[in-house]
Amino acid sequence: QVQLVESGGGLVQAGGSLRLSCAASGRTFSSYAMGWFRQTPGKEREFVASISWSGGTTYYADSVKARFTVSRDNAKNTLYLQMNSLKPEDTAVYYCAARSGLALYIRRYEYEYWGQGTQVTVSS
Length: 124
Fold this sequence. Notes:
Elements: E1 2-7, E2 10-13, E3 18-26, E4 32-39, E5 46-51, E6 58-60, E7 68-73, E8 78-83, E9 92-100, E10 113-114, E11 118-123
Parallel strand pairs: 2-11
Antiparallel strand pairs: 1-3, 3-8, 4-5, 4-9, 5-6, 7-8, 9-10, 9-11
């Protein structure tokens, strides 16, 4: 029903910036709430940020608040995550996710569709 493809991951130095993108296809993009999660080996997938279907409301994990910005361009069917002031502990595979709904969603089980992830590595 919905296909999600992340891009923009890579290797950056601590303090640097990176922008991730998530291209969506299938069901109308604007009808879905979206989120970003990340995961490191041996750990549970962790919530990072979410955005409502309209883009009018956002929510962030405390660990990334003031450093990351989530946004969306419904005309382009694309979700973004702007990451600034990156830290080594931000190193993870980052996933975008989607579900229908009007609210913000922050739990992994609340999302129905997932991308395959993109690796972000932050070095010092």
